Amino acid sequence: MLNAPQPFEKRVIPMDSIGDSDRSRHPALDSDLLLAFVTVADSGGFTAAARYLHRTQSTISLRVSTLEDRLGTRLLNRTSRHLALTPDGQTFLVYARRLLQLQREALGALNVSNEPITLRFGLPEDYAGTWLPALLERFSTIHPEVRVHIHCRMSTELLERLDDGSLDLVLAVRHAADSGGEVVGEEAVEWAAHRDFCLDRERPLPLALFPEQCVYRRRALQALTERGLAWQVDSTSQSPSGLRVIVDQGRALTLCERRMVPGQWRVLGEAEGLPPLPAAELEIHRSPSLTHPAFEAFVQRLREVMTEALPTTL
Fold first, then answer.
1. Are 144 and 116 in contact (CB under 8 A)?
2. Which of 54, 141, 208, 233 would bridge 252 by S-S if both were Cys, CB 3.0 to 4.6 A apart?
3. Considering only 54-68, 76-90, 102-116, 177-191, which range has the smallest mean pLDDT?
4. In 3-state terms, what secondary structure has residue 17?
5. Reported pTM
6. How far is CA 90 from the centre of its chain?
7. How far apart are CA 44 and CA 33, in angstroms?
8. What structural domains and CATH numbers belong to the chain?
9. Which residues 6+ apart lie within 8 Å of 64 measured at CB?
10. At 235, which helix (H) or strand (E)?
11. Closest to 199 (Cα-Cα) out of 277, 278, 269
């Protein structure tokens, strides 16, 4: 998201404009122009906005320029390496969001389209069984007209699909402080193994982990290395079910959310000489081009389900 300049100066609407019925004096604020501007502001640039909206970068740039011409003011300061909201852009962004939201609510209330409404939602597979049943049940009760398509992948893959426009909404593990998502909860992460697993301190730790792009894996291997412990990755799987099968053989350690540790496993930690692991922060990421008010209801139901499941939800 673009950084707005500070301090913010409040704009005052001239009183003589209130109740003015001469529409020819007011610029036409087409929704395509508003959406282009809001998406550029939310995504941080024209390239990302074009990807979200499935348009060319030149089209997005033209729409923002057209909007600026109609308003008679510059909304964005553009340089070859930086893009920022102007004071007028900061002010207008608030109203542009409201105008788009009102349009979506009006269309939703009238149900003017016979086209099915589809929400493409992505989340890691290990969370699907935990939260999806309650989430879908609650959402379908209030919005039966929306079809929810579920995509289960690793967090990094889901965010890539969100960026290329293949998904509308993603629940993911936070990978960076500036990831741009809404943090909605934390999960305690533990070392775990089958109860029959025997730790041999004379040999490298045998590990069964997700592939290299997994943030859990990177943090765990860093913690082991900082403590000076030898390790080796014996097995990998993109699927939590695949890892469970491997760990159930009793020959490898893995990483697991504390509340998801199976009954036949045990948690290992400082007593076995293993370093503590940072908690996993869970974030909601959404496409700036979401176009139906029901999607916000879905996000709210997701927050509710996670709040009930995670005592540490923020």
1. no
2. 208
3. 102-116
4. helix
5. 0.67
6. 23
7. 16
8. 15-110 (1.10.10.10), 117-186+281-309 (3.40.190.10), 189-278 (3.40.190.10)
9. 33, 36, 37, 40, 46, 75, 76
10. strand 231-236
11. 269
